[in-house]
Amino acid sequence: MSTTLEKGHTINFYQATAPIIISVFAVYLTIGIALGVLPGFVQNTLGFNSIIVGLVIGLQSLSTLLTRAYSGKITDTRGAKRSKMSGVVLAVIAGVIYVLAVLFQAHPLLALSFLLLARIIHGIGESFLVTGALTWGIGLVGHSSSGKVMTWNGIAMYAGIAIGAPVSIWLSKEYDMLPAFLLIAFLPLVSWISTAKLPSVPVDKDHVRTPFYKVIGAISGQGLSLAFSSMAFGCIASFIALFFSQKNWGDASLAFMIFGACYVLTRIFFASFPDKYGGFTIALISLVIEVAGQILIWTSASKTLAIVGCGLTGVGFSLIFPALGVLAIQKVKPQMRGTALGAYVAFVDLSLGLAGPIAGLIAGWFDYQAVYLFGGISCMIAMIILLYNKK
């Protein structure tokens, strides 16, 4: 196979996407590892409050958000492969800085500074990785399979988070924090190796680019609905571990695993539903299920009910991204696909970046359980936006 595809040429779907899926999974394992250990490290080891926990968690998504436009531009003008590989390098750098934070934990402010820097770099790396990976995959297999590309990359993303979080919790209990953060530095190497020989896709350098703000405007309906629906995931990622600790229910590993398993299984068995029944219908049903999951966590009187609520949230959240995403990229020309995907995923970044600090404030004012009422209300707002933008 040549190193560069000829224009219009496609290759076998799994031959093209499997290396990219492995690559995305490896980097998202690092994101899951960070989510699993950072809340406890910041609060229990360094001694900071829940608001700082929310800031540390949310900063990665905010930095990802602020670099989406640039990563989309690089992807469209210099190639998806280059964008994705840049994200891998940044993930390695972030891992090294996480390790420095652990080594300097005796100096809380210095360690916190390292963590904040690591979160920023980790977020920028995620921006380049996801935009590059999605654009690369769609470019290799063709626009008609864009929904499947987004579905399988989403599986890799959230499976990585769901597996990485409990693995890091176990490692921190058995061997302290350092091994978990060392993994963050080394796992991106798997990402690099998996796609090193995958062919690139051609870049149309003569295309007149649409301004990013116009792309944002074109997909804003789907993007805002996605953003509010993602708040629920942000609430689970940021505070489910501390919620379980507050309730004396033990660690939250099973909650992370059930969320991830339900998310992945829903995508595997129902991946064709957005194409078969329509993105609007599937997104609406998914949001109803997601609301139910968040309300169940909010009202849960036992660990079992809270875990079931996490599972329902995973089922509901699973198909929202591909259902709305296919509609979003249809609004732009193929040469602007990277920018459109960057803009679309930016709404998730905005959501997760805000979810952590807002949920931290709510937890400080009330308790960790109240965070999930906020998650449920956010999903209801997503439903309203979806209904308003129905066409």
From TrEMBL:
Q: Which PROSITE patterns match?
A: MFS
Membrane-spanning residues: 20-42, 48-66, 87-106, 112-138, 150-171, 177-194, 215-240, 252-270, 277-299, 305-329, 341-364, 370-388
Q: Does the entry feature the keyword Transferase, yes or no?
A: no
Keywords assigned by UniProt, alphabetized: Membrane, Transmembrane, Transmembrane helix
InterPro entries recorded:
MFS, MFS_dom, MFS_Exporter, MFS_trans_sf
Which superkingdom does the taxonomy of this entry point to? Bacteria
Q: Where is the Major facilitator superfamily (MFS) profile domain?
A: 16-391
Any idea which GO molecular function terms this record carries?
transmembrane transporter activity
Please provide an example of a Pfam family that matches this protein in its UniProt record: MFS_1
Name this polypeptide is given = Putative MFS family arabinose efflux permease
Q: Source species, please?
A: Chryseobacterium aquifrigidense
